Amino acid sequence: MPALRQNVDLVRWQDYADMTEPLLARLAREASGQARAVADAEGHFSAQATVAIDRSVEPFAVTLTLVPGEATRVRSVRVAVTGAAQDDVPAGTDAIASAQGGWLLGRGSVFRQDAWEAAKSRAVEAIRASPYASAAIARSRADVDPEAHAADLDVEIASGPPFRFGRLEVRGLVRYPVSLVRNFSTLVEGDRYSREALHAFLRRLDATGYFASVQAAIDDDPAHAGEAAVRVDVIEAPTKRIEVGVGYSTDTAYRGNLSWRDVDFAGRAIQFSVDARVESKVLDATVRFVRPPDARGWRDSAGAHVERTDIERLVTRTAYAAVRRQSVDERRQPAFGAAYYVDEQRPDGGEAVDAHALYVDGAWTRRDVDDLVAPARGHVVALQAGAGIPGISTRGFGRAIAQFQAWHPIGRASGVTLRVEAGAVLARSREGVPSTLLFRTGGDATVRGYAYQSLGVKRDGAVLPGRYYALASVEATRWFSETWGAALFVDAGNAGDEAGDLAKPAVGYGIGARMRTPIGPFRLDVAYGHDDRRVRVHFSVGLAF
Questions:
Q1: Which of 378, 337, 375, 381 has its CA nearest to residue 359?
Q2: Cα distance between residue 395 and residue 430, in whole Å
Q3: What is the per-residue pLDDT across 63-72, written as a single tens digit (0 to 9) for each?
Q4: What integer pLDDT is reported at residue 147 of this predicted model?
């Protein structure tokens, strides 16, 4: 047992240069009890420990022998919750089900002390994540039967009262007004407390660039449950910074980028950024201004973008200027805007085709998931609709995209992810529509097993974007630990100039490794493209939309 080295003094002091006979004798006497205590903590309650000292050699040889015996295993588990949560449907009852269903030390598990403490802590945290923020262990007992090598576990959690969000208290602001923090919040005074809602607010603030550190918590005193203050502590970040980065992706290969940020442009908390990116297949630059959100949670932005791509023997040059308004609420997120595009497409060996458009659009995204960063349960729906304005555009057209993704857990360590997408440009022809608003697919985040944007309209060896696209994906994941897992997947999709072109989707399938990270799941996939008859490696991080 590795724990012997940390918890048995005889082992820890074995290299002590000034060891004396009395000290050695004392350490030897204590070693047996300390070793048995280590064995107890590991679930071996009938362990035998002996110490032998051989004084016939120099230096003395000391042997600690531990016979752990049969491990004690959990025979029964009872996790009960008392208090108001019992009758609170669904918030309280769902939290109770989560605490009971997510119990870590199940029947048949070796009863270890650290696992026992971790299981109790996990169960309490499951209740505290609900409106019952002051939940605590009221009573816990582990009855160990040494003869049967069995343990019966009994835990009772007192839920306490349900909490509601109270006033927002902000500390640490120097440069910015309190309204800046308040307007990023979607918490409503009087609404029932949710840890996930509080953490979403925290992540939102942390991602703004205004702050170097953000902490948020509620007053969890049960006496203030009806109006629990939300306390936010911030440390403001330097307003200006420059960022240099290099990277690699399996879609566009090598990448270098240079960025300049000023989060307090003109002293009004307006965010100004300039970004330049050089990739093997893409060159682009962006200038952007973003206003802080208003009191209704709307955030306005304006910017300009230029881009050159050379993908699948099609060279595109695109420039656009855009304005946009978007809600800060990630769970119910409407957005709308307008952009003016100027675009040139030049197939390899062909003539350039120019297009321009004034494009206005609206979008709506609904995220009903258990975790916004790394969902395991729930679904996301995203809808977009827009139009190229006739007379101001080369060609008038309509455009719509629908996306759906769902996560369904199977037991504690497995799950299935389903994804479906489709899009259409409503026009008589693709000619006159900017390439950015048309569709190609294939690559890391769409149809694995195929090169990036290699699925589209085939013409003279080049792959052009089409008016329609659709894709679907099914993935089964098995987690072997809190961090690592493996996946099997099948992707299918295509893009074309007619809806009928989608009737024969390109299919890819394969296996992959998964790792949970703070910015979302990391994926490393090996996929076989059935149509291409090639194996490709893909990796990506985060959610696709």
A1: 337
A2: 9
A3: 777 777 788 8
A4: 87
Which residues are paired to 77 by β-bridges?
A: 153
The Cα–Cα gap between 337 and 387 comes to 11
Q: Is 144 helix (H, G, I), strand (E, B) or coil?
A: strand
Query: What pTM was estimated for this model as a whole?
Result: 0.83
Quote the pLDDT of residue 253.
Answer: 84
Give CA–CA dist 352/233, Å, rounded: 55
- Decide if 440 contacts 466 (C-beta within 8 A): yes
In percent, how much of the chain has pLDDT > 70? Answer: 97
- Only one residue has tokens 């992707």, namely 491
- C-alpha closest to that of 95 among 160, 36, 170: 160
Q: Which residues of 448-476 are buried (b: 16+ CB within 10 A; e: fewer)?
A: bbbbbbbbbbeeeebbbbbbbbbbbbebe
Residue pair 23/10 in contact (Cβ under 8 Å)? The answer is no
Q: What tens digit of pLDDT does each residue of 115-131 get?
A: 999 999 999 999 999 99
80 by Cβ neighbours in 10 Å (0-12 / 13-18 / 19+) ranks as middle
Residues listed for the chain = 545
Q: Residue 545: pLDDT above 60?
A: no
CA 350 vs CA 315, 347, 458, 460: distances in Å:
10, 5, 13, 8
105's tokens: 């030390």
Give the pLDDT band of residue 48 (cuts 50, 70, 90). confident
